[in-house]
Amino acid sequence: AAYVNLGNCSLAKGDAEKAKNYYLVAVDNDPSCIAALYNLGLVHKRLEQYEDALDFFLKLHAIMSSHPPVLYQLAHLHQLVGDIDQAIEWFLQLLSIVPADPSILQKLGEIYDHDNDKQQAYHYHFEAYRYLPSDLRVLDWLGAYYVTHRVPEKAIPFYEKAALMQPHESKWLLLIGSCHRRSGNYQAALNTYKT
Where are TPR repeat segments found (predicted)? Predict the structure, then answer.
């Protein structure tokens, strides 16, 4: 525990290499030290040594198979190394444990969007919206989805919510006006542009 604390202090000071060495000593003393293994994974991730980070989180997964933070790290690391199928698998496993987490749902939507599976991307973004209707990234994505699919009137409520949350951000009003214009409601578009 002392070496883990020394590692934490080094990490707080910004010395990731020194922290890594302390965590390694802690693991040498106790190979099942969960805090040291987890922190080693995080340090390797911070140092962009993703394969090494994966090794430590996989060791942790063998000890704690359904621990959400470990599953998240495994999913995110697979995403960082470009193994999208594995990332999706880990995120889905995480979602089975915490089914109402909007950040995981949004992350899955983002991955599917990047992978050009718009149907799955829409599904997960909309689920994220159901649980957290104030996430600007999700509101923006859903609005853009409807505009892209030529149903701009369905995008308006998402952009209106975003405009309520960021009243000084002109982007949202411009998007609302554009949606009105695209749907043929020119007077509403003009009124929106004037505000």
Answer: 34-67, 68-101
Please, what's the b/e burial string for 21-47 (b: 16 or more CB within 10 A of its CB; e: otherwise)? bbbeebbeeeeebebbbbbbbbbbbee
| pLDDT tens string 109-161 | 999 999 999 999 999 999 999 999 999 999 999 999 999 999 999 999 999 99
- The CATH label, of 2.30.110.10, 3.40.120.10, 1.10.1840.10, 1.25.40.10, for the domain at 134-194 is 1.25.40.10
What does the alpha-carbon distance between residue 103 and residue 19 come to, in Å, rounded to a whole number? 29
Contact of 27 with 47, CB cutoff 8 Å: no
Separation CA 80–CA 114 (nearest Å):
13
Separation CA 36–CA 45 (nearest Å)? 14
Under a CB-based contact definition with an 8 Å cutoff, are residues 125 and 109 in contact?
yes
Show me where the domains of the chain are located: 134-194
Full 3-state SS string of 95-164: HHHCCCCHHHHHHHHHHHHHCCCHHHHHHHHHHHHHHCCCCHHHHHHHHHHHHHCCCHHHHHHHHHHHHH
Question: How much is the pTM?
Answer: 0.86
